[in-house]
Amino acid sequence: MIGARWLAIGVTAVGVAFAALETLEKAEKLRERFPAIAAFWQGHGQVILFVVIVVLSALLWYFAWVEKSLRKQLAEKSTAARLREVRQPVLVLFPEFSGSFYQNHLSLLLHHAANCAEGHLHMVLVPYKVPETTAPELYLDRLLKEEGLPMRPRGVFLIPKEPQQNKSLLMSFQQTQDELGEEGVRLVLLDVYPITIEQMRPAIHEENSLVEQFLHFVGGHEVLGGEFAAKLAFDHLRKRHRAFVNIVILQGALTPWETQRTSGFKRKLAELFGTGSDQPPELRFLDSPALDYDFGRALTYVSDCVDVSLWGEDQQRLLVDEIDLIFACNDDMARGARDALNGTEPGIGPKIIGYDGTSAMKALINSGDRRVLGTIDVCADDQVKAAVTMMHALLGNTRPTKRTHLIKPRVFPPVHRDA
User: Fold this and answer.
1) DSSP assignments along 376-413, one per residue
2) How is domain 222-378 classified at the architecture level of CATH?
3) What residue ranges do the domains of the chain occupy?
4) Helix axes 35-84, 380-395, angle to 10 degrees
5) For residue 400, with 0-12 CB atoms within 10 Å meaning exposed, 13-18 middle and 19 or more buried, which class applies?
6) Nearest to 407, CA basis, from 197, 212, 211
7) Contact 219, 409 (CB under 8 A)
8) Is the bond preceding 413 in cis, omega lying within 30 degrees of 0?
9) N or C, which end of the chain has less CB nearby within 10 Å?
10) Which residues touch 248 (CB under 8 Å, ≥6 apart)?
11) Burial 257-296 (b: 16+ CB within 10 A, else e)
12) What is the rounded CA–CA span in Å between residue 180 and residue 161?
């Protein structure tokens, strides 16, 4: 095919060369018969030739763009045609006790599956069961039996509860897909990943030939989210002028992926105070145990924190006005912390920063609550839309543009508001 193409180009080039020679001979005769035209060409010939070359180049570029667009449309149509033949469901496995953030994720999945994927993805929501096996076939058979599903799924969206403990199962899903090709079950992870963002770097891949090289994943950029929260905190804390800054961190879970937001927060806050303050205060962090992102547990923990806290190794009574800031690793816990401070005077006590950007938290901020500095919006709608697009491509047997897609978070409100 390639040889024939180059042969045709060569023949054409030879033909053009002979035609050019013949044209030159005719041009000499025309120059003798029409001296005025010959003089005009001699003065402006190069400009005319340049314009012709530019026009021809533009036309060639335009035809190439049209061809590329047509190829893309044909590929999308063929993908849609293959998906129309699919009658099997796509499972959405989510933590059984899900807060408002994951409930919103599920609603967005149903919405985008109906719109972005042209209605070809039939979602079936199933509470996540802790796997007792590393074989995908056995795991899915168990789900089919327990949930009464009529047929085996072709795709699975999974929000893993403990990704580190389930690496073998996740790896097996991908190996099964690679071995079975079109018959394999497509797996897309949401929100939580088995390793950290740092370990996603290509140089690390060679050392860790684990699931990170194979799994498809869409989630928020945890490190950036923590850093954005630190900037929000710094703008408030630098006005306090204290020798010590006491910060309570409400942790939801302690997996390597989920602790990235707290480590990013601490590192960036220390960096900001180190470069943006003449006499940086001592940063003292009180990390809560894993509160499972729960509103009630955060409320109880902060209520206890106001009375007795552990800073370093010494247990001491801590007055509410000695806590400068509460950084909650999700908005449900941030609202729980906010309720724990209801009995305190409005001008006394810590400010609160949330994480996720849920509608309930945004409504609280928009109401003018002065306890809350803001939240980090992880752009859940963008995450879910990217995940549905990824699954749509996988089910159509086309390769997604990215295996791991990290969505950049935003600070809410966009304009910092401080008391």
Assistant:
1) EE--HHHHHHHHHHHHHHHHTT---S-SEEEEPPEEES
2) 3-Layer(aba) Sandwich (3.40)
3) 2-84, 90-220+383-407, 222-378
4) 90
5) middle
6) 197
7) no
8) yes
9) N
10) 285, 286, 288, 302, 305, 309, 323, 325, 326, 327, 337, 350
11) bbbbbbebbbebbeebbeeeeeeebeeebbebebbbbbbe
12) 27
Q: Are both 90-220+383-407 and 222-378 of the same fold? A: yes
Identify which of 405, 381, 380, 383 has the alpha carbon closest to the alpha carbon of residue 217.
405
**Helix (DSSP H) and strand (DSSP E) numbers for the chain:** 12, 14
Which H or E run includes 309?
strand 308-311
- How would you write 21-78 as a 3-class SS string? HHHHHHHHHHHHHCHHHHHHHHHHHHHHHHHHHHHHHHHHHHHHHHHHHHHHHHHHHH
148, two tokens: 């009464």
User: Six-digit token pair at 343?
Assistant: 């009995």
Instruction: Report which secondary-structure segment, H or E, holds 156.
Output: strand 155-158
| Adjacency order of strands within the sheet including 404-407 | 123-127, 90-94, 155-158, 186-190, 216-220, 404-407
Task: Report d(CA 90, CA 123) in Å as an integer.
Answer: 5
Question: Residue 219 carries which DSSP code?
Answer: E
Q: In whole angstroms, what is the distance from residue 328 CA to residue 350 CA? A: 12
Helix, strand, or coil here: 158?
A: strand
414 and 374 Cβ atoms separated by less than 8 Å? no
Tell me which residue of 218, 253, 224, 210 sits closest to 95, measured CA to CA.
253
Full pLDDT tens readout for the chain, 419 residues: 444 444 555 545 545 444 554 555 555 665 666 666 666 656 666 666 677 777 777 777 777 777 777 776 665 555 444 444 445 578 888 877 667 788 888 888 888 877 765 566 677 777 766 666 666 667 777 777 777 766 778 788 888 776 666 666 776 676 666 655 566 778 888 998 877 777 766 544 444 444 445 578 999 999 999 999 999 999 999 887 778 899 999 999 888 888 999 999 999 999 999 876 667 888 999 899 999 999 999 999 998 876 544 444 444 445 566 889 999 999 999 999 999 988 777 677 799 999 999 999 999 999 999 899 999 999 999 999 999 888 888 887 677 777 888 999 999 998 665 54
What is the DSSP pairing of strand 244-250 with strand 216-220? unpaired
Residue carrying the six token digits 């950049």: 408
Tokens of 385: 């839309």
Does the domain at 90-220+383-407 match CATH 3.40.50.2300? Answer given as yes
Q: State if pTM tops 0.85.
A: no
